[in-house]
Structures are given as structure tokens and as C-alpha cells.
Design a protein that fits this description.
single chain, alpha+beta, Thrombin, subunit H, six-stranded antiparallel beta barrel, 28% helix
């Protein structure tokens, strides 16, 4: 079987593609540098409320600084929210946060919002830190 060959219509289009890839890499770098703590892929049930709405969803990832909530009805950017995060093996973690950004479903990804935690009590930080440590240590594969 031969290899498929793809040809870009012009050098201008090829340069535009390289520039777009470079811009995306730079955007991801900037975004990562803004985070004060690493993300951990973790799915937890979350319910929340703001002054104007009530919503439910699941976390896609969680960190000591915040959470991405996959939900069909995210609150608006800047809204303060009260969250109940159901962490496995712990009582529900009740935290406050501020919606910092939205992801819309037009891109093909789940809709949702990025929430930064605010006013965490040291007890809440300990519960969250323990859950994150446990999630990072959970093996992906098990010997049978």
C-alpha cells in the first residue's frame, strides 16, 4: 500500500497553518502559566447555584485552584457560585468560586465553565488536596 500524499494549495496557506499552530501553542502556554496548581483529570458530580441560576454537571479536571465543570447551562463569566463537589470517599465539598471562562458546544467539545475557587478554608484545602493526591495515585491499569 502506498502512502497518501497531501499537497497544500499554496505556500501562503501553509504559512497560515504554521502560524495558527504556533498561536495555539502560545495560547496554551500562557493559559498553563496562569495556573498556580496543576490539573488532575477527575470526574466528580457537581451541583451549583449563582444569584440567577442553578446547574448540575461533572468535573473534567480539578486543581487546588479551581475546576472545569461540564454542564449544559453554565453561569455567566464573573458570576459568583456556590458549589457542592462530590469527591469519592469524602463528604461533599462545599466551596465558593467565580466563573472565569466559558466553553461553548459549537466547537464540538462539551459546554461548561472554568471556576476559580475563592475563600477556601484550610479544612477545605486539606480535603481537596487529599482527593487530588488519591486521584493522581490511582493506577490506570490493573494486573489481573
Amino acid at each position: 500500500m502506498g502512502q497518501a500524499a497531501f499537497k497544500v494549495a499554496s505556500e501562503t496557506e501553509a504559512q497560515e497553518m504554521r502560524d495558527a499552530l504556533s498561536e495555539e501553542a502560545q495560547r496554551r502556554e500562557r493559559e498553563a502559566s496562569l495556573r498556580s496548581s496543576p490539573r488532575v483529570g477527575m470526574q466528580a458530580a457537581i451541583s451549583g447555584s449563582s444569584a440567577d441560576s442553578f446547574f448540575v454537571g461533572f468535573s473534567e479536571n480539578l486543581s487546588e485552584g479551581g475546576v472545569f465543570i461540564s454542564t449544559l447551562c453554565p453561569p455567566a463569566v464573573g458570576e459568583r457560585v456556590d458549589l457542592s463537589v462530590d469527591l469519592e470517599g469524602s463528604p461533599a465539598l462545599l466551596v465558593q468560586g467565580v466563573v472565569r471562562w466559558l466553553r461553548l458546544s459549537e466547537s464540538g467539545e462539551p459546554s461548561g465553565c472554568g471556576v476559580q475557587f475563592v475563600n477556601l478554608h484550610p479544612d477545605q484545602e486539606n480535603i481537596l488536596g487529599g482527593a487530588l493526591d488519591a486521584a493522581e495515585q490511582t493506577p490506570l491499569f490493573y494486573d489481573i
